[in-house]
């Protein structure tokens, strides 16, 4: 049985792509089971509840050598704790290639599109496999989530085509209304502890030349996508404390928490210390005022934040 899973601190794409790819593989005669690497966020819980679909189980500790398939990620820092001991046989992803190393030739499908769900739809169409309403709504939800319903600069024509194809099958007549309901669910944070809010959409990245491991910096980058940024800034002090804890706990050089206003398409980022303040000034030209730096319309971590930091920390040739 092939274990299929998305990244830690899963978002909607990480969960739904694991479910859809596992069922796709099973239909192709490859026994596969979806798992998750963390708790669902409120948006994903809403999507699964709407569909009456159970969340995948937490990935158990897998013995070394177990065959696995990765969706929506490929970097070891964002994967199962013992990923380097597992046998990665398949990856379907739309992120930059990281430190993936395999002993055997794997099946790899990478495309620079807005969502892993968009690639999964292509796999169905290429295999002449019909898309069931359940799978259609899972993929549709992932694409709307990852692209913020086409607001994100990561959006490609393929993502738009996929949504146009999937919405009628999924029975979603008003796509924007459905997207807004997802975003509202995601923004309804209630009394969620600050540490959990910081971790909900959080990824760690090594920056710098891997040939000089001593010079590599490790940064933790959190994002809160919300229709209610005022609520998040109301908890600024708690969030900064949670960031401080995470930095110490995980031995990080820096941490950032970007608060993305989905509807206004802006990013205001919480700045913990002089270290982050300096980097954000040098990389983005943004000054920090009261612990907040205005990063303007840079709402995509993948496309607008990570590449700029990567370049900054890479030794100049
Ligand atoms: Mn994704």
From TrEMBL:
Residue intervals of the DHHA2 domain: 179-313
First-level EC class: hydrolase
Source superkingdom: Bacteria
Gene3D superfamilies assigned: DHHA2 domain, inorganic pyrophosphatase (n-terminal core)
A Pfam cross-reference name: DHH
Reactions it catalyzes: diphosphate + H2O = 2 phosphate + H(+)
EC number: 3.6.1.1
Cofactor: Mn(2+)
The entry's keywords: Hydrolase, Manganese, Metal-binding
InterPro entries the UniProt entry points to: DDH_dom, DHH_sf, DHHA2, DHHA2_dom_sf
GO molecular function: inorganic diphosphate phosphatase activity
PANTHER family the UniProt entry points to: BNIP - RELATED, MANGANESE-DEPENDENT INORGANIC PYROPHOSPHATASE-RELATED
Protein name: inorganic diphosphatase
Source species taxonomy: Bacteria, Thermotogati, Deinococcota, Deinococci, Deinococcales
């Amino acid at each position: 049985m092939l274990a299929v899973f998305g990244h830690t601190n899963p978002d909607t794409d990480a969960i739904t792509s694991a479910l859809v790819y596992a069922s796709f593989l099973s239909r192709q005669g490859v026994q596969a089971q979806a798992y998750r690497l963390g708790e669902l966020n409120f948006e994903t819980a809403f999507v699964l509840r709407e569909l009456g679909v159970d969340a995948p189980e937490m990935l158990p500790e897998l013995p070394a050598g177990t065959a696995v398939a990765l969706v929506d990620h490929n970097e070891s820092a964002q994967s199962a704790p013992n990923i380097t001991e597992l046998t990665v046989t398949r990856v379907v992803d739309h992120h930059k290639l990281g430190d993936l190393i395999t002993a055997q030739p794997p099946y790899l499908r990478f495309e620079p599109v807005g969502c892993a769900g968009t690639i999964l739809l292509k796999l169905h169409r290429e295999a002449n496999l019909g898309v069931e309403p359940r799978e259609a709504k899972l993929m549709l939800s992932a694409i709307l989530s990852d692209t913020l319903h086409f607001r994100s600069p990561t959006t490609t024509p393929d993502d738009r085509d996929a949504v146009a194809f999937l919405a009628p099958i999924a029975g979603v007549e008003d796509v924007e209304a459905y997207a807004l309901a997802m975003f509202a669910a995601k923004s309804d944070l209630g009394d969620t502890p600050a540490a959990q809010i910081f971790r909900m959409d959080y990824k760690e990245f090594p920056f710098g030349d891997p040939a000089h491991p001593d010079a590599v910096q490790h940064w933790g980058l959190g994002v809160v996508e919300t229709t209610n940024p005022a609520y998040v800034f109301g908890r600024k002090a708690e969030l900064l404390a949670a960031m401080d804890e995470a930095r110490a706990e995980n031995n990080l050089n820096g941490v950032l928490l970007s608060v993305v206003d989905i509807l206004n398409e802006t990013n205001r980022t919480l700045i913990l210390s002089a270290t982050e303040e300096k980097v954000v000034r040098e990389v983005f030209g943004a000054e920090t005022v009261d612990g907040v730096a205005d990063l303007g319309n840079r709402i995509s971590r993948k496309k607008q934040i990570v590449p700029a930091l990567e370049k900054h920390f890479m030794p100049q040739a």
